[in-house]
Amino acid sequence: MRRLFPIVMLFFVLSVSSAEDLGYTLSVDDEIYDHLKIELEIDDVHADRYVISMPRWIPGTYFIGDFGKHVYNFSARDADDNPLPVLQLNQNEWEVNSSGTWKIYASYHVETRQRGFMGNPLDSTGALVQGATTWMYVKGLEHLPCRVEIQAPAGWQVATGLTATEFPRHFRALNYDQLADSPVMMGELETLEFKKENIPHDVVFRGRADFDRDKFVTMVRDIVDYQIGLFGDLPFEKYVFLYTLSKSRHGGGGLEHANSTTITLSALDLMDNIYSAANVTAHEFFHLWNVKRITAKALMPLDYSQEARTELLWWLEGVTSYYADLTLMRTGIWTPEVFLNNQARRIEQLQENPDRLQTPVSQASWDIWEDGFMSTGISVYSKGQLLGLLIDLMIRKNTANRMSLDDVFHYLNIHYGRRGIGISERELAQALRQVSELDFQPFFDRYVTGVVELPYHSVLAHAGLDIDINMTSKPSIGHVRILGPRNRVFSISPESSAAKAGLMRNDFIKAVDSLEIDNRKQFTDCIRKQTIGDTTRIKIERDGVDLVLRVPVESYERSSCTLSENPSASAEAVTLRRKWIEGK
Known about the structure:
Elements: H1 6-16, E1 22-28, E2 35-42, E3 49-53, E4 71-77, E5 86-90, E6 93-97, E7 104-111, E8 122-123, E9 126-129, E10 137-138, E11 146-151, E12 157-160, E13 163-164, E14 170-173, H2 176-180, E15 184-187, E16 189-196, E17 199-206, H3 213-231, E18 239-246, E19 254-256, E20 260-266, H4 267-272, H5 278-286, H6 313-330, H7 336-351, H8 361-371, H9 380-398, H10 405-417, H11 425-436, H12 441-447, H13 456-460, E21 465-476, E22 480-483, E23 488-492, H14 497-500, E24 508-512, E25 515-516, H15 520-528, E26 535-542, E27 545-552, E28 554-565, H16 571-582
Helix pairs in contact: 3-5, 5-6, 6-7, 6-9, 7-9, 10-11
């Protein structure tokens, strides 16, 4: 949209940008919790028509959601409350004819029945409002500042990264991008706070759980302190952690924003161990730089009307996962043994996936719009994390520990992130070479755009580490991934025995043989207890009807990986490992 026909768009902007700002009001019907009502105010109208659009995707999610399908009761009126002509152009866009008025009020409802970070979960206790699924934008006026008023039920609190004003529940945003990138949590909230260099960091909970709040905040602060120290800057005036506490064992998902994050945690897991929240917290906070500042050219500027494809998601997401793990080790939340065990689990995941020898991770980054971030294909998260590990050790080896991947992020932040410039695949390789004095193009050719097996043994030896990988046959019905409290099938490999037996995406798994299934782990454990060659009965729900599928149990090669210190490693390798662990 904004990247097409730039000259024509310039004239369009000049013809409609007389208004000084836009006004948004969000209200909740406290009797019927099935929708949010939004009113958009356009002042100082000079154009004959305006096109008002709902985004098609949320930055950070990388798939088309077409959120206009959740909009209804769209209407417009003038300053005297007279209706204005409205024409729906397509699923996501509405045209409003100004008919000579100086002010336009457009209003619409957003249904909130969908769940998860893609929707607007709303009930009598509160709501989590994601910007891109809620606020429409006026084409040509995206650059204008925005006024936001939240009309929440009495007794509800409001937490958001939006800038507060002197009026309660009134906020402002510099432009539409900032508005769309600032989720709003409201309801019965608990807010804790700490400061870093006098900048407030709010830790907000929606939901209840009995756990040590002080210990939790200390954990979050340790993560924040380490990562801010790594980059050397605080690119925000306030940061807000928005945690939703789920009553089930489902949780662990998060979505990054420029000065906040939304994270879902299992209240049960949290009460068992507060550090169950550590990894996702470290991952999302690191995105403050890697994605929100250091980002791909394809994501600048943001275009909410179409895909923004890049081959760099393995770097933006996978290397972020690597640094989440490093953060936990270097802050003492994890021991080095736990860190190494987690890298071994990522190796197992990769080695068990036959797609690693068919699809380059650069292609998986590009194809994520079709396949989804939890597809059965190669994972940009797992392989990207391992690529980050290998690149880090190669830099340390080549520079005798004078440089590391930390320095690459320093370089990218200074030359690209702080200047608001996106990077390309070529510029990333150049940055690696600039820091390490090592040509990474052969590495990229083999392991990023190629499908050669990763060089675990030779590179891990730089840090005096041995790797042992074993493959054994285990029972399987294929790659089946389920999500949510109803165990919805999110993805399934088409060649699997489950797919051939009739299991489909969006089916709900209810039982395996005679055992009712409550969560993903239970489903996985049931399959692992099957006997290769037998047939298992899987009870599903599809379109409200219960069905039983008879699925043959096949075999797959299960990977087992261990990483251990080599007692015969050289002094140089031992020193490299020690400084890598300590972050020196």
